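Q: Start with the shorter request: fold the first protein.
A: Done. Sequence, then structure:
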Amino acid sequence: MNKDKNNEFAKFHIGQSLRIFILGIIISIATYVLVLATGIGFLSFLGYIPLLLMVLGVINAVNGKAEPLPVIGTMGGGK
């Protein structure tokens, strides 16, 4: 879909997915450290946040919307 370099819709959603990927890495490292430090295994449920954001992103893409995701959608100079 993004063979044409001017496809703004594809560029937008690729940027959103990159943000989710980076957030997932950060959350996994942070929860690992917090669980080791506090012993509260319940904190590992924070790892589902990127999954929820991915589902929202897929819903937006399928519906043809270019809406930024909550919280991380505009980080890094995105639209």
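Q: Next, the second protein, separately.
A: Sequence, then structure:
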Amino acid sequence: MVLKEGAIYEHVKTGKQYKLLILAKDVHTLEELVVYEALYDNTVSKTWVRSKEEFLGEAKSVDGTFHPRFKLID
């Protein structure tokens, strides 16, 4: 899947929506990172970072099956 900056993605497990802000690289490892923002009220953090590999990986949905962790909805 090609990630799109500015696009809206939905988390498979929670159904919550996030806006992909920018793709980045770790300064030490050059690992590709995804910086994204929660589009819902969140008291923990509004901005999140995870590896591109993990963002594109699979997660267990509420019914116990595995699906892509995030799906493009916008």
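Q: Describe the second briefly.
A: The mean pLDDT is 94. The helical segments are 52-56.
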